[in-house]
Amino acid sequence: MKFLLVFDFDHTIIDENSDTWIVKCAPERKLPNGLRNSYQPGHWTEYMGRVFVYLGDNGVKEDEMKRTMTTIPFTAGMIDLLGFIGENKDLFDCIIVSDSNTVFIDWILKAADFHKVFDEVFTNPAAFSSTGYLTVQHFHAHHCAKCPKNLCKRKVLKEFLDKQLERGVSYTQIVYIGDGGNDLCPVMFLKKNDVAMPRQGYTLEKKISQLAQNLSPVQCSVLVWSSAIDILSYLKLLIKE
């Protein structure tokens, strides 16, 4: 009896967007208009690549970025929730599927000593170049029309589950915790016994209710959360059953 917990990262584990938080490192803590306006829908990773070049050009170094990123607050109740999951790793497998990047997530989880809670992190690969610039790449290629070019979370989840099955691991229930529009695709992949936990007032919750209004609701159960304590209460119930 094992449960799989799937977490988004930005606005779910942390209470901010890590990609926009890094702008605090920029001169005057803002980006030039030309750069800001260069974003095209579905091409966020390319946009962030340009942001990192701008930071590098302005002499922003790795240690300054790291200091800034590790000040991002966790979502209310998240520290308690991750502590609980860490103490019950025999019952929970736990992964992150995020449109952030490996460097940011690694810094934040390690600084708070939560990296051991997660079995795998699926996100855009990032690294510092020999000249000290942060670079980021697409996580994978996919054919899903609904998702941003660099990441389809449904594909990630499906491939992870297939790989686990090959290892002889299957899950009693999948609990998907997220907030954004790109979390809808994996939520629609969940089965009747699974649970989607959208964050209250965020895009994912709105999209799920829209589907229900259009009489094409998601198959799984839906439990809305506003503090991670709501998620913690549900997991405690789950393991009591």
TrEMBL record:
<dbReference type="InterPro" id="IPR016965">
    <property type="entry name" value="Pase_PHOSPHO-typ"/>
</dbReference>
<dbReference type="InterPro" id="IPR036412">
    <property type="entry name" value="HAD-like_sf"/>
</dbReference>
<dbReference type="Pfam" id="PF06888">
    <property type="entry name" value="Put_Phosphatase"/>
</dbReference>
<feature type="active site" description="Nucleophile">
    <location>
        <position position="8"/>
    </location>
</feature>
<dbReference type="InterPro" id="IPR006384">
    <property type="entry name" value="HAD_hydro_PyrdxlP_Pase-like"/>
</dbReference>
<feature type="binding site">
    <location>
        <position position="179"/>
    </location>
    <ligand>
        <name>Mg(2+)</name>
    </ligand>
</feature>
<dbReference type="GO" id="GO:0016791">
    <property type="term" value="F:phosphatase activity"/>
</dbReference>
<keyword id="KW-0479">Metal-binding</keyword>
<protein>
    <submittedName>
        <fullName>PHOP2 phosphatase</fullName>
    </submittedName>
</protein>
<keyword id="KW-0460">Magnesium</keyword>
<dbReference type="GO" id="GO:0046872">
    <property type="term" value="F:metal ion binding"/>
</dbReference>
<feature type="binding site">
    <location>
        <position position="99"/>
    </location>
    <ligand>
        <name>substrate</name>
    </ligand>
</feature>
<feature type="active site" description="Proton donor">
    <location>
        <position position="10"/>
    </location>
</feature>
<feature type="binding site">
    <location>
        <position position="19"/>
    </location>
    <ligand>
        <name>substrate</name>
    </ligand>
</feature>
<feature type="binding site">
    <location>
        <position position="8"/>
    </location>
    <ligand>
        <name>Mg(2+)</name>
    </ligand>
</feature>
<dbReference type="InterPro" id="IPR023214">
    <property type="entry name" value="HAD_sf"/>
</dbReference>
<comment type="similarity">
    <text>Belongs to the HAD-like hydrolase superfamily. PHOSPHO family.</text>
</comment>
<feature type="binding site">
    <location>
        <position position="10"/>
    </location>
    <ligand>
        <name>Mg(2+)</name>
    </ligand>
</feature>
<keyword id="KW-0378">Hydrolase</keyword>
